[in-house]
Amino acid sequence: MEQTLNKKTLPVDLSKKTIAVMLIEKQPSNHSLLKEALIDFGYHVTKHISFNENILEEIDICTPEILILVTDSPSHKMLKDLAEVNQLHPLPIVIFSENDSPNVIQQAIKSGVSAYVVNEILPQRIQSIISVANERFKAVQSLRNELKQAKVQLESRKYIDRAKGLLMEQKRMSENEAYKTLRKMAMDQSCSLAIVAKNIIDVCQLLSPARS
Description:
It is a single chain. By secondary structure, this protein is of the alpha/beta class. The protein has two domains: about 100 residues, Response regulator (Rossmann fold); about 60 residues, Winged helix-like DNA-binding domain superfamily/Winged helix DNA-binding domain (Arc Repressor Mutant, subunit A, Orthogonal Bundle). Helices cover about 55% and strands about 10% of the residues. A five-stranded parallel β-sheet has the order 2-1-3-4-5, sandwiched between helices. Strand 3, helix 3 and strand 4 form a beta-alpha-beta unit. The longest helix is centred in the C-terminal third of the chain and has 49 residues.
């Protein structure tokens, strides 16, 4: 991908925390215009690698805060690798590409890409692109955490309801008495209601006669 970069840079805010960037290009070079622009704007290019290297392994070693890729067109393997990165080491991902196919862009977004920029790379836009990528990444992560928390709460409620049912059946308790018993056990053991409920379910399953 041919990089069109205006070497004129904007003042760098030295009060801001330096952001660690991993840059991936087809042919990494010390003369990379994008790398020079990132450094000019105060970013720390912690690693500059090619697409032939193991992205996940390099992320493990360098722990970058943002991943930037420059490519003519993201390959299927590249998008698969990025999806794996998004699952194991979530971080903002920016792709600069010449391919403006809606299908490719859609696949990139599904793989966890936070910003997909087509054609020339303008230095004056780098900071805003990274800022937007960071904000979009945080929004997606927040939604993911909310969905995960909702799933945990739903699973916990299922355990609690089942444990209450077992206590009501075996101890001849009312629903309110069963709940109070669970709550007291949780307080005595300094753990959550869900853990107590899961333990009760496990014990009941262990003690129940095996079915032939």
